[in-house]
Amino acid sequence: MAQFRIKLIAPDNTERELLYDNQTSSLTWGADGFGSPVLEVNPNTFQDATVVSTTQPGRKGLIKTLKISLGLSCNYECNYCSQRFVPHAESTNPEDVENFLQQLIASLSQAPERIEFWGGEPLVYIKTLKPLAERLRVLYPDAEFLIITNGSLLSLETNEWLDRMGFVVGLSHDGPGHHARGADPLDDPQQRAAIMDLYARLQPQGRISINAMISSQNSSRAAVQIWLQERFDADVQIGEGAFIDPYDEGGLAATFKTTAEHAQFRRQGFGEIRTGLASRFDLTNQKIQDFIDSIRYQRPASALGQKCGMDRSNNLAVDLKGNVVTCQNVSAAAFAPNGQSHLIGHLSDLPAVRMKSATHWSQRQGCSSCPVLQMCKGSCMFLEGPLWDAGCAAAYSDNLVFFAAAIEFLTGCMPVFIDGDLPPERKDIFGLAKSTVESPPVRRVIPILAAQQTA
Ligand code: SF4
Ligand code: SF4
């Protein structure tokens, strides 16, 4: 049974209607289309996701992605950072590497496919990072290595090493909104030279992305894209790219507060996708494709885990003391808002890991009846209270932009209203029901992805 009736404006300005069920991923035309499916479906078989909560603790098993937290120290102070007020665990150093590796070898029954090295700023820990990554490269020659860095501590020597070790690098930079992170390394001639050297080394192999975050202070993906294209090149690949989750007052201050602000953000985001001005954001195409796939393969909501994947048994976050933690953004000394420790076990005894710090979306009020569930997959799995509420509101508007773009791509019609069990401000996609709108999106008939391909 459809949960949502979606009102569309067709290219000839007539109204049409879609019926959408977020639980079964059924998308059909309304009465005017005789209930026919929008897309030819090719149902797949899906496994139910594991529902993690305090009463159903998450476990860890065959590890495919290993996230190693080197420590939370950073030389920047991003005002929305998820780690800002996380108590730091006991610091780690090069002497911890050998013991950590022995525990790792003993506990992993197969080579991880991907190993991520996390800070804080991981290059603060270069003296530990180097021996660690070199030993891991010998142990797991086929594993993909990933590092996220703010780039300020790069040098030609470090770049050569990152290249030789086969790293994929995510360089954090918010383009015109970078001031929220602190000083811009691109303003420093030496740091800029090192960043550009790394970019020139890795970009031709597709091994570097510039990772930008969207917030109320940096809300335009088009502005970020243009800024980064001017500094790097037209082919710049932009990673991350989602609206921030608020983890504290600083994060809250970077979210939208009013219905009008949310509507304006949705109009702007939708318009930017339509015109191809956000096309360098990996997220844009991933989100749209993910929604199309959910319809095509009829993905049930029961198959959806959390958006970050850290509820899955095969994703493991661990520090160099062997402490298993909820995710790479917290420490063994920190507690989740639900009062449960982020320290969920130890590498030496993976079968005993129990994650009680997270709440699966199905245990949240509102997610099951949310039209963007298939794209959002719940906000941060450990947030609670006002931070959760603000994160959910931000995630709704952000995902609604991609939802609307995907619907337009599939149908050629612009969705404007979602009727269902929703608060009013979530029904009116672009705030068009109000007469105060100054610049509604200009309707274009050409489906957006096709428009990009022919651009
Ligand atoms: S937008 Fe909010 S309610 Fe909807 S799926 Fe995401 S977290 Fe849940
Ligand atoms: S639980 Fe997931 S969404 Fe939340 S901070 Fe950790 S990685 Fe990010």
Brief summary:
The chain starts with a strand and ends with a helix. Residues 435-440 and 444-455 have low confidence and may be disordered.
Keywords:
single chain, 455 residues, alpha/beta, TIM Barrel, nine-stranded mixed β-sheet, four-stranded antiparallel β-sheet, 13 strands, 30% helix, 15% strand, globular, disordered C terminus, binds iron/sulfur cluster
Structural description of this entry:
The chain is α/β, with parallel strands linked by helices. It has a domain at 65-352: TIM Barrel. It is built from 12 helices and 13 strands. The chain has helices spanning 96-107, 126-139, 156-164, 189-202, 221-231, 249-253, 259-274, 282-296, 373-376, 385-411, 424-427, 448-454; strands at residues 4-9, 15-21, 26-29, 65-69, 114-118, 144-149, 167-172, 208-214, 238-243, 315-319, 323-325, 343-346, 414-419. A 9-stranded mixed beta sheet has the order 9-8-7-6-5-4-10-11-12. A 4-stranded antiparallel beta sheet has the order 3-2-1-13, with helices on one face. Helix 1 packs parallel to helix 2 and helix 8 (282-296) crosses helix 10. The radius of gyration is 22 Å and the shape is globular. The relative contact order is 0.16. Residues 435-440 and 444-455 have low confidence and may be disordered.
